[in-house]
Structure formats: structure tokens, C-alpha cells
Amino acid sequence: MVLIREFEPEAERQYKKARIGGYCHLATGQEATTVGAVAAMQEDDYLLASYRDHGLALARGVSPDAVMAELFGRVDGCAHGRGGSMHLLDVGRNFLGGWGIVGGHLPVATGVALAIARDGGGHAVLCELGDGATNIGAWHEALNLAGVWRLPIVYLVTNNIYGMGTSVDRASAEPELYKRACAYRMRGERVDGDDLEAVLEMSEELLENARRDREPAVIEAVTYRYRGHSVADAGLSYRTKDEIAEHRSEHDPIEIMGKRLVERGDADEEALGAVRERVRAQVKDAVAFAEDSEPPDVDSLAEHVYGDPDYREQFSRMQPGSPFGETSLVFEAGLVS
Amino acid sequence: MSENGTKTLSFREAIRLALREELARDERVFVMGEEVGLFEGSYKVTAGLLAEFGEDRVVDTPISEEGFVGAAVGAAMAGQRPVVEIMTLNFILVAMDQVVNHAAKVRYMFGGEAGCPMVIRTPNGAGNQLTAQHSQSFEGWFAHVPGLKVVAPSSPRDAKGLLKTAIRDDDPVLVIENLVIYNQKGEVPLDDDFTSPIGRAEVVRDGDDLTIVAHSYATVRALKVAEQLASEHEVEAEVVDLRSLRPLDVETVAESVARTNRVLCVEEGWPTYGVTAELAARVQHACFDDLDAPVERVGMAEVPMPYAKNLEAATLPGEDKVLAAALATLDMGPRR
User: Is A307 in CB contact (< 8 Å) with chain B?
Assistant: First the structure.
């Protein structure tokens, strides 16, 4: 949680220095939801996420170096500079991506659960989405398929109160989003998304049901995003500074968990401070790593459009009559042998 | 291929044979779509497959194209080989986001770390008074998109061969079929390992006077017109069957045009921004000095398909229109 808390403001600083481009959606304030749910996953479980994915990647164990390098658009980034902020992934950790179209990844995640079921089951998919994604048709289609096919998937709705600038109660006829699960005869639960242990406990239970009984479910974790929708949004036209301040002072997930650890005698202020110092150094190193990493070679532009061993042969006869520039940029640089 | 190695099959049977062979060959392959199992396929392409392979391999879905096309993307990313049937191409519109913004993006957007080996096979076309919402051919929309491959066979032989290649391919492939030619018969190799290459057009009729380029049902029309040109006008037209739209084999087209110096491009869909538009652009560039006449095109009239039989016939790119355009391209008839 502390790593995310330190990483995101650094990403914002680097964005404002124009070292990071595109959209950049930060997740400060949502750390307990992110970490609680991902910590409940087992090694073989799969994770798919929305585009607010820096925290989810870090929680799943992707190195801050690889994440920061991807934000910088460098070759050592986790998607080698092809994906950027919204499309982090780590196939080795079964993290199949941050996805950029609201709700579009829900059918995809459901298909991963279908693949698990076809392979004999035993593990589960955690599919993270925002509150806004529950109003798109893909939500309904994905949950209906998971219900009729009994797929091992848990949909984690990160309800941070606002889909961009539109609050849940202005966008959703049923603003208690977890209740929508009953339309698919699926268990739906709401947890305090700022309470790490509550999120962890509920996620563990529902993921285990998914692994053991192929029981799909919905968790709605109610939390809050401190920053705007993306770095470009000040986040103040649709909510007040007082509202943000109140969340920071009353509901901060890291404060809540820190206090609890101290009260229980599991940690003291010094130990918590040491964690902060350690992750600050990690984030600093990540920036240095990203700075040192090379931008991708322009000659590799056309690599990875296709992956079949025969694709160069397949495309080898398309070149005559190509538009200006296509031959050198696309064909000679990778699309043909 | 020896005489014994082929059998006369309909286009529909050839697709079914390809599915059966690939289901038997690779455990990861499964067929998924609306009514593909118990109902045996809306157009009976998948008839018998459920009985032969069971419901884990032949999966009925709800009416939920966005859901199950997306599920195919996810299953493919996780190592399966889904073959999705979209009942007709018209119904893919509600799944466009999954095809264009998900399947086509997986490999590139994730830096080559993940892949999406899936097939979408779907019939298109018009001609049965199916009217505006069910009579469309927009394979060009998909051929527009890097990350996708699009093939469109015109013969039972290639219906089998291209589908098999598509299923074995590691990238998302759309296989465009055509309802009108489902019953068309032809010789089909029975060899389990017979495949047709993606990215290779085929000269299906030789000629020196004119090149007609087409795909899918339009190729069938082009062949008929070529025979008519020979018997009634003493003109020998070469017919190039594209077979593959992305990648597009411009080389074969250009080689033919360099010999005939005249080219007519035919498609079932609307020509504006269509497959023939792309062909015209590339051919004029590749064959600028070879052309003795403007690149000519024929497609569906640019209206939503009407219902009345006579209006439908007037909208379709029928053999009469193809013949007239061929004669115009040969300077043997009026232009337009």
C-alpha cells in the first residue's frame, strides 16, 4: 500500500515533466481495495484490470522498475513501450493486462475463467473494474455468461464514488452495485474498501469459492480516489476540497491500517517510517531505471502486430502499391522477412 | 492430389469437415456460438459436431455476441483455440469493440507478451430478401485493422483449407463466408493436413484481355461473367480470387494487370471505402504504366438493402452489372 502511495505521486511528477505521456490514471486513496484483493490471490490465479492499473500491477509483484519504464515508454517496460500506463501486464504472474475501454475487459476476463474451467479448474480469475463499468452492456453479458457457465471468477468493483466526474448515484439506477449480482444468481458483497483486512477476508472467501466450486461472485469495495480521474483532471469540478480532505483525514486506508498495527503491537511508528523510507528509495530507483532504459528501436515498429511464425510469409505479397512510407516503416521493418 | 484424395462437397460441408478435423486434431480447439450445438447451427454448418465431440467442445452461447466474442479473446489469451461462429456478419456489430479494440490489440499493445489465437467465422452477403439489417458485407472494415487477418474463400476447397489455416494460426483471423454459396459444390481434398495459405491470391481463370479481381461470392459471379465474355465477346478475362483480404496479395493482382493492362474489381459490399477501393489505390500505384483504362469497380448499390425482389436485384452487383463494367473497361461498351 505504501509503495502505491509513493509511486503514484512520483508518476504524477514525471507526467508533469512530460516524461510520461498519454492518459495517466492514479489510484492514491484506493490502496486497501487494490492490495487486499490481490493479496487474496494465489500464484496460479489470473488478474485482469481496468486502466487504473499501476497499483494492481505493483500489488501483483510487477517491479516498480518495469512499471515506471513502461510509463516512460521504454524498452524495459513490462509491455516494452507498446502499452503505457493503461496496458501494464506480466504474463509470468498471470496478470493479463490493464485494459483501456471501460468494461471491455469483462468478457475477456470471463473467457480466461472459461479457459480455466476447460482445463479442469482449480484456480480463479480476479477481474477488477471501476464503478462506471457496471453500467456498460459488457458487464451484463460477462456476468450472465459467468453465471450460466458457472465460471471461477470474482469481479472486484472498485467503487471510488465517481466514474470520471459522474457520481455513482447520478449514473446508476441501483447505486448499491453489489446488489446487481443477484440478477445472475451470483453472490454479491459490499465491503469497506479502505479497510485492508475486510477486503482481504472477503476476497479470500470469494476467490476460494470460485476455485473450489466454480462459484462466480461480485465484491463491491467502496473507496475513494484522492486525485482526479487522470492527471489532466484537477478533480474539483464535481466534488469539493472539503470532501477530499475529509476522506484523507477520516478514511485513509494506510492510516487506518497503520494505526491498527501499532495498537496491536505488531509495528511501531519507527517501523512504519522505515517502510516509507524503503519504498521511497524503491520509487527513486524506478525512475532512475526508467531514465536509463532505452526507447524502443523504431525499426521494431512493426514487430508484434502478428505472432504466427508464418506471418512474414503471409504478408510478403502485400507490398506493391503501398502508400508512401509504408514499405520502410512496416514491411522492411518487420512485417515481411 | 489424387482422384481418390478428393470428394465433391458443398461449401457448407467443407467448412464442417475443417471444423471436425481440427476439433479431432487439437484438444484446445472448441467451437462456440449461438445455436451451434443442440440446434446444429443456424445454417447447419455445425450439424453433428455436438454429438461427435460433446458440449465441452461445441459450446452453445446465449444471444450475447459481445460477451462470447470477448470470452473467446480471454480463452485464447489463456491458451485455448476458440472458433467462434457469428450467426451472420451483421450481428458482429455489437461485438465490434471486442474484435477491433481487444482481439486485434492484444499482441501489440502488450509488447508481444500475449497472443490471441482465435477464429471468427461468419457468413455475410445478400440475395434472399433479408433486407437492410441482414444483407451486408463489411469485411473491409475488419481488413482495415492491423492485428486482424481476414480471409474470404470462394470455393469449397478453400472454405476447408483457409478455415484450417485460420484455426492453426496464432493470431485472430476472421473467416468470411457467404450464405448464397453454402450449397455450391466442388472438389475438396480429404487430406487432414490440406490447408490453403493465408495471403495468397489465386488465378482461377487464365486470360490476357482483362483482369477481374474478386473474393467470396463475387469470384463466383466473376467466373460466370468471364465465360460469357469468352463465348459472346471473344474476350479472355483472367480471374484473380483474392482469398485473403488482410494480408492482401497485391503482387498476384499486379502481375496479372501488367499482362492484361485492364482491371475490374468486384465485391458484394458497398464499394465506397471498400475492398475494391483499396485494390484500386494499390493497383494504380503498382501498375501506373501498365494501365490502358481506368481501374473499374462494381459493388452493391449504395443504399440500405430494400425488401422488394426487383429492388433487391437492382441493388446487388449482379452478373449483368459485372459484364457491363467489364465491357466498359475493355472499351467495348459505354462507361456507366
Answer: yes
